[in-house]
Request: fold
Amino acid sequence: MEEILNVNETYLTFRLGKEMFAASIEKAINIIEMVTITEVPRSPEYMMGIVNVRGSVLPVIDTRMKFGMPPSEVSRTSVIVTFNIEIDGDTTYVGALVDEPGSVIELTPDQISDPPNIGAKYKSELVIGTFKDEEDRFVLLIDIDKVFTLDELLEIETNTNTSDNIDN
Amino acid sequence: MDEFRKKFIEEATDLINALESSVLSLENNANDKEIINEVFRIMHSLKGGGAMFGFLAISEFTHNLENIYDEIRTNKKSITKDLLDITFISVDHLRNLIKSDADTNQAVQNKQKELLAKISSYVNEKTEIVTEENTADEQNNNISTYYIVFKPNKDIFDNGTNPLFLLDDIAKLGNSYPVVRAKDVPGIGAIDYTRCYIYWEIFLETSQNESEISDIFMFVEDDCDLSVTKISETNTISDLRFVELLNDADNGVIFEPEEINAIIKSLKKVVEEPQSIQNADDKIKKFSKESEITSIRIATEKIDIYMNLVSELVTALAGLKLSTTRLADPDLIEITENIENITDQIRDNALSITLIPIENTVVRFRRLVRDLSADFNKSIDFQTIGTDTTIDKTLLQIITDPLMHIIRNSIDHGIEYPDQRVKNGKSPIGNITLRAYRSGSNVHIEVEDDGKGLDVERIMSKAKEKNFVSQETPVSKAEAIKVIFHPGFSTVDKITDISGRGVGMDVLKRKMFDVRGDIYVETEKNKGTKITLKVPLTLSIVDGLLVTLRDKLYIIPLTSIARIKDVTYKFLTETSRNVAIIDNKQVPFYMLRDELDIKGDYPEEVKFIMIKYEGKHVGLVFDTIIGEYQAVLKPLGKLYKKHEIISGASILGNGKVALVLDTNKIIQKFSETSNQ
Reply:
């Protein structure tokens, strides 16, 4: 434990499939409604393409695929969350397609538990911790910078067993 | 504080560059008081800034150097070659002083001591003063007044020309005073609104010459009567009495030449008298010229934001135009036209902000030629033409190294030693000319020397030796020259530290292709070599062709398109191994729907677009062509940085996104995969 700050931090939660995730609100720029995505040929499958956001080009990522889940099916609740991430010291914007935006939650450090142990493939540095949201759902708090700077697909599927383990 | 030091380093770098450039021009005009003052001023700024931000070495150093120039300024000393040499070395030294390790670097410290000693010995030296009356001092801003009669033909509107835009362009050249002639306008019932009935007489004071004015009318030459006459060598229109006299003489018809002459003459008489007042005026003007802030420093980030906003504006305008056409409201149409006009100007202006003159790097080349020609014992006259041509900042950075390389090559291999030159019947002084000019949406930069030229025979034998060309078949001169762009090619057996390391022309060529540019070589034995770099004006705007594959939009840069042919899908499917016979020539082609994984079949009629690729043509097959399109190129961002075949995206007026294809990379990629 390098530092424990007794300051409340704010997080944005979102749903992918049946799982809930959260990222620091400072990383989220805005949430945009679903628009037509222009595919970029010959790019990885999880890179859905680009969209026009008020005259600028924003790459959109199928977050579900990036997290090792089946590809997203665009529904009425789907939105694109724009995150600012750092790649090689530069700030860049990425649109993450999520199934449904959640809420903005303020947490004290002691409300966040240590990351669960989710098997060999899981990279511990991607998950900062876990917590329960207001509907008592289990939420994985992820490090957005690291998630989107890695090229390969990730395996952070969780199951109820693991959530029981930390809920001690 | 670090923030301030950073700022100072930025500023100091500019100042040092300006100093170098001034000292270079001082070399040719040793007695030009303006330049000496400039040198003094720059040193003074460096000294002040250095002291304020803790760069004490800089302030100490410039203080001493400044002393010399103060004495020159006050005619106590004169400029000598020795002094200029010291100053040049000092410029290099100053560059080292602003580096972060200057305080600890022993070599820099020693240099400081050595140079200070030289400078102080120079100050103490007694030199004879050679002064000339400064004649070049007279302020000469070359403003003349022109009288332009622009009489458009009645049918000028037919080809879409708006004469008012031409008047706008004239007004941009300087101070203009247009007089409208509307006496030919018929009665209200007889007006045909597709005809132009009016014409203009324009008085223009400008520093541009006649051809610049005529250039504005370049595209309407055949559609109008035009005359441009210089009526005086001064800024006549600024004289209020001129306009007054003009109005008095105006009787609704075109001015007679005599009338204008008479007005000019009567003005002159009055002007010549109050000489002393004029002089005082000049002095004030000069003073204010010095203190005037003519440029400001802006963070490139801010410019990027500005450029983004401008392209958003352009996109928004396209939407507005669509709605305006649909609503057909006369008031709205007028407002939209007005906004369109302003937007065009903002766009041009925004573009011009990101462009900087080539002169910015040419200073470095002057210095390079000066130093290298001394190293090689060759005397070289380096001339530059058109260095005020502007180009995108990023592109300028990209072409600087290639140009440096070309100039080095010219000095090392091109220009002969003086005795050799005399033997060949040339002047002992070699010439290298750097010429820059704009042509359409490209900038051409030529480096021409009058040296010995490329040895085509030697190139060929080397090429055969290395098996770059076949041994038997004879090769034309043009083909032989192409060999020098082959990777690993060099004719030089002995490698100097300047050039000849074999990484050269092939790297240049690739660099040029990467920025959608090109490189050409012309050479003549004993006459010299000319190397031309062609680069687009900016990387952010592409003149392209908008094409479709199913419902997807793509843009192909026009520069890469050789020809377009309508063919049937059946014709292509019946070819063997994807090679079509077009006009008796074999053209390999790629079905882009397959290559880009776009589902569905092609329509019956398809577009066969022939792309220039390595001197050959390669076909790319698309569904349809929508038309030409000037695309504002947006990068796809870091996440797509590994993506080579798409060079960016462009947002169309209706908000849709089109991808810009990098045709070179596409063909390269596809041919690799099909060969595997």
User: Anything to note?
Assistant: Residues 300-327 of chain B form the longest helix (28 residues). The first strand of chain B starts at residue 144 and ends at 152. The radius of gyration of chain B is 31 Å.
